[in-house]
Amino acid sequence: MTAVNRLIDEHRHCDDLFAATEAAVQAGRVGEAKEAFAGFRTQMEAHFRLEEERLFPAFEQATGIHGGPTQVMRSEHADMRALMDEMEASLSGTGLATFPGLAETLLILMQQHNMKEENILYPMCQAHVPDMGALLAGEPA
């Protein structure tokens, strides 16, 4: 599996966890929704950290580009984190009725974000970051 495929697989896994959360909310199974959302959020944060702490700095170092696509991705990560905070509050009882609208907003943001990463940023990283697979695996350079 290539490094890019690994990252794309992580996107799909997060999508699946998100769908499980939405299904539980729609069925009125709040406890299951909370558990599914916790798993989704954990995976999203792990993916964000991998990009923000390993991939993006390596890309910036290799290309000298510091304010471009990686900055946009970081900003979108922050937007998604804020939405996830609101969704978590909704599941914790501050207004479950707000969850579907927040989920729809997050879904659209994730879809747009993933398209940019998968079609633009990841290929750029593959072209410029030496041994991207080892980098993502946490192996020393």
UniProtKB/TrEMBL annotation:
<dbReference type="Pfam" id="PF01814">
    <property type="entry name" value="Hemerythrin"/>
</dbReference>
<dbReference type="InterPro" id="IPR012312">
    <property type="entry name" value="Hemerythrin-like"/>
</dbReference>
<protein>
    <submittedName>
        <fullName>Hemerythrin HHE cation binding domain-containing protein</fullName>
    </submittedName>
</protein>
<feature type="domain" description="Hemerythrin-like">
    <location>
        <begin position="3"/>
        <end position="125"/>
    </location>
</feature>
